[in-house]
Design brief:
The chain is built from three helices and 24 strands. With about 325 residues, the chain is mostly beta strands. Strand 16 and strand 17 form a beta hairpin. Helix content is about 5%, strand content about 40%. The protein has a five-stranded antiparallel beta sheet with strand order 1-23-22-21-20, with no helix packed on it. It has a four-stranded antiparallel beta sheet with strand order 4-3-2-24.
């Protein structure tokens, strides 16, 4: 099996924003485990300690967030395509379509990188995340994706079984919704963080507790307006933190906030000349480290106090990193 050993670079950046105090961050050890990511839109895995990298799935159209199963033997990923129809009466339309697939590390280690399993077929399913108990997959879906002449999307948060069955929508009134929800992440309590989407644009971060899923859309807008430009959220495994990307040209970065959104701490500011992909960061199993990517095709890690920043790959064509779970085969 091919292996590429990469030098690990260390960087530090200055910013006026506050970083997490050491007493709040707690003890931080050395990072370990594996990171899955997309390279040239195929699925790869990088071992943090050795630097060894290996292609897992040669798909060439991977797009968006990745997610590890609890036993680290499977990786969920999204593949994208395009619907493009120009009707004889000028009706029709063009938009991207997505579905969720599953890669198997055992197949890759047996030198079969062209084996994967499709688990959705609705053409709008993307950016999967395993639930905390490993029993469900959380994702978002464009309910209008299979309509070639759809004027606008209808983004909804869904859950399903690991085999793709029993898809359930978070909002029971989704057919009449004018505002939508994208980029979901769910903690062990069932609290969902997402980005509100209305006026055909992503707005700001919202958290709904498990008993608030059906609150009025106006209330979602109010919460979103308080957190504009905060996108791509991810809960920490211990539920104590929520990481997000600040999508702001004047003040970009990876940040961490607490569950009530009352405090924000800077983790990472992209180097001059680059920016951050608006894809959810991913926590290490101990909730002490984050991995994320920059638009120069680099994969990074940093601890939650904003120290220990390292570039693990790139510059190149790498994006969408996801940290493996806490398991014996890390």
């Amino acid at each position: 099996m091919a292996a590429i050993l990469m030098a690990t670079a260390a960087f530090s950046f200055s910013s006026a924003a506050d970083k997490m105090p050491a007493e709040l961050a707690g003890s931080i050890g050395e990072p370990s485990g594996k990171i899955a990511f997309l390279r040239e839109k195929s699925v790869w895995v990088l071992d943090i300690k050795s630097g060894r990298q290996e292609e897992i799935c040669d798909v060439n159209n991977g797009d968006g967030r990745l997610a590890w199963s609890a036993d680290n033997r499977e990786i969920l990923f999204t593949r994208s395509g395009t619907v493009d129809l120009q009707g004889p009466d000028m009706m029709g339309g063009k938009h991207k379509v997505y579905d969720i697939f599953k890669a198997f590390l055992d197949s890759a280690y047996a030198n079969n990188r062209f084996w994967w399993l499709r688990i959705t077929d609705g053409l709008g399913c993307r950016d999967p995340e395993w639930s905390a108990d490993g029993k469900k997959i959380v994702f978002w879906k464009d309910m209008n994706a299979n309509y070639v002449n759809a004027f606008e999307p209808n983004y909804q948060i869904c859950t399903m079984n690991p085999d793709g069955s029993d898809i359930e929508l978070l909002r029971k009134d989704w057919q009449v919704m004018a505002d939508f929800m994208i980029a979901p992440t769910m903690n062990a309590k069932g609290d969902v963080a997402f980005v509100a989407f209305y006026d055909l644009k992503p707005k700001g971060l919202v958290i709904l507790k498990s008993n608030e899923y059906m609150i009025h859309q106006d209330s979602i807008r109010v919460r979103s307006e308080r957190n504009l430009k905060k996108v791509a959220p991810c809960w920490s495994p211990d539920g104590n933190w929520l990481a997000y990307v600040r999508n702001d040209l004047n003040n970009p970065g990876i940040y961490i906030t607490n569950p009530d959104l009352s405090a924000d701490y800077l983790v990472f500011t992209p180097p001059v000349g680059t920016s951050l992909y608006t894809i959810s960061p991913s926590f290490s199993p101990d909730s002490k480290w984050l991995t994320f990517s920059t638009t120069d095709g680099s994969i990074w890690i940093a601890d939650i106090s904003g120290k220990g920043t390292r570039r693990l790959s790139g510059p190149g064509l790498d994006t969408s990193p996801a940290w493996s779970k806490a398991a014996a085969n890390n």
